[in-house]
Amino acid sequence: MPKQYPIRPYARLLTMLGEQLIKNETIALIELIKNCYDADATAVKVTFENFGENYAVSEHSKIIIEDNGCGMTEKTILEHFLNPATPEKKRRKEKKPQTTLGRVMQGEKGIGRFAALKLGKKITITTYTQNDTKESVVVLDFSDYDEDFSAGIKDQSLFLDELTASVTKRFPKTFAGQTLFGKYKNNSGTRIEIEHIRGAWNQKKINDVIKDVNRMTPPVFFQNEKLQKQDFVVRFCPENQIFSSDSSLNDVKVLLEEKHLFYVEGKFIDKNKPYFAYSITKGGGHPKELKLFLDDSDFQKLSLYKKSFPSGIDRPIECGSFTFSFYIFDFSANTSPRYKIDKKLETDLLKSHRIYLYRDGVRVYPYGNPDDDWLQIDVARGTISAGSTFSNDQVVGYIGITQKDNPHLQDKTNREGLIETGNATSDFTGLLRSFLAYIRRNDFQQFRAEFEKNQNTIKAQDIFNQRQVETAFQAAQKAIEEKKPNALKLLKDTEEEYKREREYLVRRAETTEQLAGVGLSVETASHDITMIMRKALTLNDDLINDTQKDSVDTQDLNTRLTTLRGMLSFVDSTLKDVQQIFRSSRQRRKNIRVREALDKVHNIYKRQIEKSKIRCNIKEIGSPLVVKTTDAVLLQVFINLFDNAIYWKNDELQDRKIEVCLNGDETTLYFSDNGIGIPKEDVPYIFEPFYTGKGEDGRGLGLYIARQLLSKDDYSIRLAESKSEKFLSGANFVIRFYSEGEDVDR
Fold this sequence. Notes:
By secondary structure, this protein is an alpha+beta fold. Strands 7-4-3-10-2-1-11 form a seven-stranded mixed β-sheet. A seven-stranded mixed β-sheet has the order 14-13-12-15-18-16-17, with no helix packed on it. A five-stranded mixed β-sheet has the order 20-22-23-25-24. The radius of gyration is 35 Å and the shape is globular. The chain starts with 11 loop residues before the first helix and ends in a 10-residue tail after the last strand.
């Protein structure tokens, strides 16, 4: 009978697992932090201690990872931690897949602990549970060994079972009621101290690690009611000073919310007849609910579908159900200003994020990295057609899978994405590629066609207007040619100069539109502010004089100080309203109740309205009018409307009126006055830059600016046309807070 021999791996297996299987220091730290997550930690602190300039490594350098999780008992250390590839986590997940805090445990292969060996050769682990009276200290010190764990004798290396770890118990010293970065208690948890650091570190690598760790759980721009942020905070600290977090994430959030063309959110449902159930929202509009079945003929005609499923789908889908959300952008050179991407700044922000994959709220690496094309989107654009799908730069997305619904989508042992054997992963990526191609071919293509059509109409109108100007010049040329032939060249030069000047002035108008509303509001508010400040200074001087007297009437002093505070409060409130118009306050669109912005502008013009004896009536119809824009846009639009309404008075009228009607059900605002109205000959030009009927009192920018600002949000302003839109006898304007083709039914 054959003799049986034990299999004894050499100790260098640890090097292979830690050094070679785990790709880099970032992945190593992520693995250790995932262990903290599985231990129900709410806070993790990563400290780089005793590093030199630009994180140069010295013999005293340490990397310390501390958490306030549940810790490990001595039994867990001896029976599981010191046994590589333990199945303990896998058994726990099968028996009870969720932790006490309701988290789904991530690790199960039992090799994540060797991530520490990627970082250094000496590992000291201190751990403590709330049920213990003593904390355990585990030391793994392999500093004296080379990469092959040679014992010092040529060709004689240690076996794995010849390596030892020391385990001691002591009264709590590390865990004695302290807190992590002054906030989170760590009455239990684990502290890993890594010495004899491997590899090199620098500021760039630190920044890259911080970015990746900040994306370990869904970043702020993926969080919503359905995807709540985990109570899990990770901080990086050099010499116990907390690093600033990745501030670019908030910039990306604003960019995604402000500039996306489409927001697509939904779920792939794996049933007998699989389908995508999703909603698609254009800009800040209303979501459109849709379903796309896999047997849809338009879906199956897609080139990417045929490439992903050459024989069709004649078997059950193996990847399971999953959720998704995508922000999609229009990179076309001639897109609407509402969706225009700043090539210098915003494009770089978008390129730093791709389509992320999260399992039970924890990221699957490296999917989502700038250089990762895990869905092979760029490959498809290069081999099939650039127009077959969106580019990686155009889409920032979130894919959510779970261990329950997607058991066949498993991580590779080296933590470099999903295992690609079998049909599960290819089904998964094929469905996602095909779905994005479907959105590209239908919704995106339809938007581009409609936009190009509108642009062609505008161009035709511009050409028509330009030809009128050319015709006028030609007539003038013919009239003077015989008598003054030298004037011909001058006239042609004048024509060219006119074209250049008009183009220049239009650009200037767009640049100065930010400041025009500020000027109007400051001009209006300055009289009140100056008057109040003059009174406040006089009162302040009186108070200073009174304090020099031998006796002070405290009650009178209190009364006058209260009056002074009221004056300063008025100035502060007025300046805050004006300040909202500045560029710094216009960076982010949000849902705003229009009535609140209207009341602020009404308050700015209150003195002028009372002085001009105007009755201002603001009424609301139906539900409150709420629109997605910025405070600055609404304030500037209303400032221009109020300013015009107050200026254009009718001397024959004793009873002057301004009527504003907000119709929340129609998402529309009507602004009317009973002034002299707009002359018929001026109607075609009132929204043109520098056209004014006020003479030297006017700038000709107000209504032009109002139209430009609203158009950037796909909103519009026009003169009222029908009787139902005209509330008073003077100028009547209609503002529609929805795009031309958008259905406003609620």
